[in-house]
Amino acid sequence: MCGIIGIIAKRPVAPELLAGLKRLEYRGYDSAGIATLICGRIERYRAEGKLTNLAARLHGEPVLGTIGIGHTRWATHGQPTERNAHPIATDRVAVVHNGIIENFQALKRELTGLDYAFQTDTDTEAVTVLTTHHLAQGLRPAQAVARTLERLEGAFALLFLFAGEHDLLICARRGSPLAIGYGNGEMFVGSDSLALAPLSRRITYLDEGDWAVVTSGKITIYDRANQLVQRELVESVLSGAPIGKGNYRHFMQKEIFEQPTVIGDTLRALIDPASRTVKLPDLPFALGDIGRIAIIACGTSWHTGLVGKILARRPGAHPGRD
Ligand code: GLU
Question: Is the torsion defined by CA of 148, 154, 158, 163 positive or negative?
């Protein structure tokens, strides 16, 4: 599962894009990249493999753009090479994408027929080139994206950056979550609230099918029928502190060592030490009314589920079915 981050700020955004991608590392990825605007031009920095490679690429090269997008890619179409790494861009628009564009081949054929050339093996490039085509027809960025979204099939989250537009990001959600964080005269877009944790705690989640026009002062959200909609603003409780890898060698090691704390925290929320009893939250139904429980899990959680199954079984019930 890839990671997406976007920032409109008053200061150079490259270091924070990189830090945001670092917080999304836990999702796994094979390559990474960022794009910013320098004098209105789209500039990209991409690298195969770990974020340290991207950081090395950026090292010693002051990237001064105050707007930008970043991506950790988990390749579905095309090798995990620098050429296929996101952002995928033309001279007019750069796109980062999570998910799959099912009809990319048909779109690619259509656009090749209109003399557009493709540089990558990704499905994402069909989105980039189609939007470029709409811009070339004279549409404003928001209209161009709306027109592009109408043509896309599949499940995705998309984030667009436009040449010459220092105060504009457009994002869209179909099947893959996206969160927008409010700052003080700044705005942030991310795959989840973890990505945004230290940047903003005031967050709006896009609903399925929504797309949003984001500027430093305003977020305008449209639903899939292009109708203006309001979405709730929520306060995130995440601080960003527990998200990194810390001193652990990898995330799995971190998870293993964090188990005692996590179990302790979970139990502390449910056990009353004074009465030594378990205090379950008020449920909107009676536990005794439940006829069947389905536990869906794999790996370690599957084993946990098996233990849960034994614990939850009614005395005398059939072992395989209860
Ligand atoms: N399908 C896109 C690609 O292969 C995006 C993959 C992802 O979600 O990272 O480039």
Answer: negative
Read off φ and ψ for residue 126, nearest 5 degrees: -60, -35
pTM, two decimal places? 0.79
Using CA atoms in the order 237, 241, 242, 248, what is the torsion angle rounded to 10 degrees? 170
Radius of gyration of the chain (CA): 23
In the reported structure, the alpha carbon of residue 177 is separated from the centroid of ligand 1 by a whole-number distance in angstroms of 15
Q: Which of 21, 30, 46, 74 has most ligand 1 atoms within 8 Å of its beta carbon, as the pocket-test mutant?
A: 74
Let me know how long the chain is. 322
Sorted by where each starts, the structural domains of the chain and their CATH numbers stand as 3-242 (3.60.20.10), 246-312 (no CATH)
Amino acid identity of 154? G
**Ligand 1 and 174: CB distance under 6 A:** no
Any ligand 1 atom below 6 A from CB of 81: no
Which string of DSSP letters, residue by residue, matches 151-164?
A: H--EEEEEEEEETT
Residue minimizing CA distance to atom 8 of ligand 1: 98
Q: What is the pLDDT of residues 135-171, one digit of tens each?
A: 999 999 999 999 999 999 999 999 999 999 999 999 9
Q: What is the pLDDT of residues 299-310, one digit of tens each?
A: 889 999 999 988
| Mutation test residue for ligand 1: of 4, 95, 98, the one with most atoms within 8 Å of CB | 98
CA of 73 to the centre of ligand 1 (A): 6
Task: Please report which confidence band the pLDDT of residue 322 belongs to, taking 50, 70 and 90 as the band edges.
Answer: very low
The answer to whether 163 and 37 have CB atoms below 8 angstroms apart is yes
